[in-house]
DNA sequence: GTATGTGAAACCGTTCACAGCA
DNA sequence: TGCTGTGAACGGTTTCACATAC
């Protein structure tokens, strides 16, 4: 077994391939070359072959890749061959939108719990999930099997929310607050920070640079 | 004048510096070294100095950077020394959350228009903005001076929304739909794609790799 | 013939280390 | 002395080009 370092961005690209492959599969297309897939994703064909090579040999020389097979393999690599249970912290505007975001339903993600600090929100039902007080987090995370926590609270409370999730045993966190969070080793945080993206857009519009 | 290529990620880091500098400024701290700022942002000090060096010399050797001055300069570089007018396309769950997201108010962004296809949503007022039909886009973009368009429609409609915005004269687009959009030259698109981030999180949780 | 898989080269971004200056 | 500004070294990612296999 060879140990090669896998660029973290390669993982993101695998997700992009999954999207295009699902589209091809829906159209009934059975075989795809790295060149064709590259066009669909806007990525260099050699890049695609290299990304796949990190994990094995999935293609047939002179032919290409079988769509269903490759889709299955990439999903297995990413861990998308199971259902993931999500817990939400912060049922404000964004949190509510996430709970109601039914598009999660076709992909392997399901909300199983939602938490908030504010008493007036406790007990309300949004997207079929009853909002619980943060004090119930330890218990509910275990009961419902929450594996990934989504943080949709204000910047000031985001770190506290992360700490509570970690303490309750959650190992993966998606943070929507525009702030850098700390977490212990073997816990993972991904940040979704759209104000950074807005700023980048302003820079581009101001300078005309393609960045 | 020297032409050096500026890494696009450097622009994102400038936004991060702005956040930390605003915090320092609020605390009344007047001078900061690259080392101290590096600690706050979780970034290498040499990286910070290099990022700033792309745009000029803002520090004082032996002293550091004057917080207010550096803040002013970086904001000018990013184009954040003005108010930016936003237009929203798609007033569903996410779109509604964005309109109500009052945190935009303290940063230089303001929503001035919102559009939707669905007749039942037209005319409703959300976050002080009246929802208009997409047919009114050409007129309203000019009237209200929309500079940046936010796309919060489903994947199927995202490209159509982008085309309409571009046709109406919008040069910058933030796309929240999980799909790759095409646009003409000198138009800029930034994608906020949290399903890619979720997938990356699953990979990390599955493999235990820090990526 | 055609498309994959992969070493090697090119490219780009980060970090080091120190010269330059207050 | 202390910290910035920056050329050079380093490390990682992307692209090329071709051997390999169907």
Query: Which CATH architecture of the largest domain in chain A would you pick?
Result: 3-Layer(aba) Sandwich
> Span from first to last CA of chain A?
39 Å
Order of helices and strands of chain A: HEHHEHEHEEEHEHEEH
Please state the average pLDDT score of chain A.
93
Structure annotation, total helices of chain A? 8
Indicate the CATH class of the largest domain in chain A: Alpha Beta
Spatial order of the strands forming the largest sheet of chain A? 5-6-4-3-7-8-9
C-alpha Rg of chain A, in Å? Answer: 20 Å
Which two chains share the most extensive interface?
A: A-B, 59 and 59 residues
Q: Kindly estimate the percentage of residues of chain A that lie in beta strands according to DSSP.
A: 15-25%
Q: Choose one word for the global shape of chain A.
A: globular
Number of domains of chain A: 2
Task: Describe what you observe in this structure.
2 copies of one chain form a homodimer. In chain A, strands 5-6-4-3-7-8-9 form a 7-stranded mixed beta sheet. In chain A, strands 1-2 form a two-stranded antiparallel ribbon. The two termini of chain A are 39 Å apart. Chain A folds into 2 domains: 8-78, Arc Repressor Mutant, subunit A (Orthogonal Bundle); 84-196, Rossmann fold (3-Layer(aba) Sandwich). The longest helix of chain A has 19 residues, at 8-26. The radius of gyration of chain A is 20 Å and the shape is globular. With 211 residues, the first copy, chain A, is α/β, with parallel strands linked by helices. In chain A, helix 2 crosses helix 3 (45-53) and helix 6 (137-144) crosses helix 7. In chain A, helix 5 (93-100) links the parallel strand 3 and strand 4 (109-116). Chain A has 8 helices and 9 strands. The relative contact order of chain A is 0.09. At the A-B interface, helix 1, helix 5, strand 8, strand 9 and helix 8 of A face helix 1, helix 5, strand 8, strand 9 and helix 8 of B. Chain A binds a DNA duplex (22 and 22 nucleotides) through residues 5, 7, 9-10, 33-35, 44-47, 49-50, 52-53, 57-65.
């Amino acid at each position: 077994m060879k140990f090669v370092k896998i660029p973290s961005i390669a993982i993101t690209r695998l997700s992009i391939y999954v999207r295009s492959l699902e589209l091809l599969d829906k159209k009934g297309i059975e075989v795809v070359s790295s060149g064709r897939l590259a066009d669909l994703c806007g990525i260099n064909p050699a890049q695609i072959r290299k990304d796949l090579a990190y994990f094995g040999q999935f293609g047939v020389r002179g032919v290409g890749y079988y769509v269903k097979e490759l889709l299955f393999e990439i999903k297995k690599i990413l861990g998308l061959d199971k259902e993931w249970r999500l817990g939400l912290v912060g049922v404000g505007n964004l949190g509510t939108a996430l709970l109601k975001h039914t598009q999660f339903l076709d992909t392997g993600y399901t909300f199983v719990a939602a938490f908030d600090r504010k008493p007036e929100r406790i007990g309300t039902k949004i997207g079929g999930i009853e909002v619980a007080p943060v004090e119930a987090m330890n218990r509910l995370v275990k009961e419902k099997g929450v594996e990934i926590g989504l943080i949709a609270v204000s910047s000031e409370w985001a770190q506290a929310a992360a700490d509570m999730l970690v303490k309750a045993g959650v190992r993966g966190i998606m943070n929507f607050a525009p702030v850098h969070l700390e977490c212990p080793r073997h816990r993972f945080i991904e940040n979704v920070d759209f104000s950074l993206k807005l700023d980048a857009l302003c820079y581009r519009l101001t300078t005309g640079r393609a960045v």
